[in-house]
Backbone:
DNA sequence: AACTTGCACAACCGCGCAAAT
DNA sequence: CATTTGCGCGGTTGTGCAAGT
């Protein structure tokens, strides 16, 4: 079946762009704007595939592109961001004005990675495999990064490092309850924090639930936490923990829907009965609270904490609940 | 001077996602 | 609902240049 690569089409040029081609592309985009890459080459009189044009524009001709050596600050920022985001070059590039994802990717592969390796740091750790729900949540986190929640991500990363230390120094304990603080800032900024058992395989589901829920009560001494999923302004779709049970969405599709809502409308969430079909019940012991701190292991804490922060931006009348 | 190596940069390529059909 | 299509992303490769041998 396979698609025919656009670069392979007959009669199209490949390789380095000439000044003349640049001129044509620039002139066309200045007049007609970006987009419609497929038909752009024909209209602009270029013997290139659209993909090649887009790349040339994005990485070279686009106004505002900073060229030349990366400063120490920029390099430091890349290392920092990469530790949190992994190889998400396009997201990283949004934090470095004037730098393209390609450029950042290049500098990482040709210089920074080797430098870190020499220092005994293994930058490949971010490529470890994580669960599908965790990947989904990471995706959400990534989407939210441009919205200014980088600090929270950093906080989470710090927490994860702490956790790793904890894991190394402790024996295998499936239901370990010892929490590890993510960061003081995080605790202060989040209206509620939640502790979870690191062992539960369904933790991702719990995280998803927490993303779409309001933690109403956090009492470290009680060793329990209450989670309300839903919307106080719309009582008919509110779900409460019943007894020792935390209710949460189970189906991935439902979760995806929730996450989409959060991504597209931060701080705004609509819940209806039909959207919460497939709710499962999980004993709350699996997610019991610890000593008032947060910890997490599966690479999704960033998403959770980011969403926690969103709560703080909700209107007063909604009592801190995500509503629509 | 000739060759090798490393680096920086640009571009190619395949794939996945989402909108359009 | 299934398929097609366009776009964007990330991995990889190619090329030119400078420094080292």
Residues:
């Amino acid at each position: 079946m396979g698609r025919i690569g656009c670069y392979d089409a007959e009669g199209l040029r490949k390789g380095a762009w000439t000044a003349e081609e640049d001129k044509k592309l620039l002139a066309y985009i200045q007049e007609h704007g970006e987009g419609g890459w497929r038909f752009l080459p024909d209209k602009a009189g270029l013997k290139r595939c659209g993909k090649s044009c887009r790349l040339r524009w994005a990485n070279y001709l686009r106004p505002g592109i900073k060229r030349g050596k990366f400063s120490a600050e920029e390099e430091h920022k890349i290392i920092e961001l990469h530790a949190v985001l992994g190889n998400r070059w396009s997201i990283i590039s949004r934090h470095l004005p004037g730098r393209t994802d390609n450029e950042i990717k290049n500098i990482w592969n040709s210089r920074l990675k080797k430098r870190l390796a020499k220092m005994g740091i293994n930058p490949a750790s971010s490529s470890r495999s994580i669960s599908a729900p965790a990947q989904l949540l990471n995706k959400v986190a990534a989407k939210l990064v441009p919205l200014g929640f980088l600090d929270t991500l950093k906080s989470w990363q710090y927490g994860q490092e702490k956790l790793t230390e904890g894991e190394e120094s402790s024996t295998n304990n499936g239901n370990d309850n010892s929490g590890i603080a993510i960061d003081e800032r995080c605790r202060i900024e989040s209206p509620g924090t939640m502790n979870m058992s690191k062992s539960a395989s369904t933790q991702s589901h719990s995280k998803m639930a927490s993303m779409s829920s309001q933690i109403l009560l956090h009492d470290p001494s009680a060793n329990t936490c209450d989670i309300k999923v839903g919307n106080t302004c719309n009582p008919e779709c509110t779900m409460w923990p019943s007894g020792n049970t935390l209710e949460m969405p189970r189906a991935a599709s439902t979760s995806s829907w929730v996450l989409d809502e959060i991504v597209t409308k931060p701080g705004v969430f609509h819940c209806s009965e039909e959207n919460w079909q497939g709710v499962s019940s999980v004993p709350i012991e699996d997610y019991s609270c610890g000593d008032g701190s947060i910890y997490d292991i599966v690479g999704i804490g960033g998403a959770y904490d980011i969403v926690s922060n969103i709560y703080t931006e909700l209107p007063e009348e909604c009592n801190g609940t995500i509503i629509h």
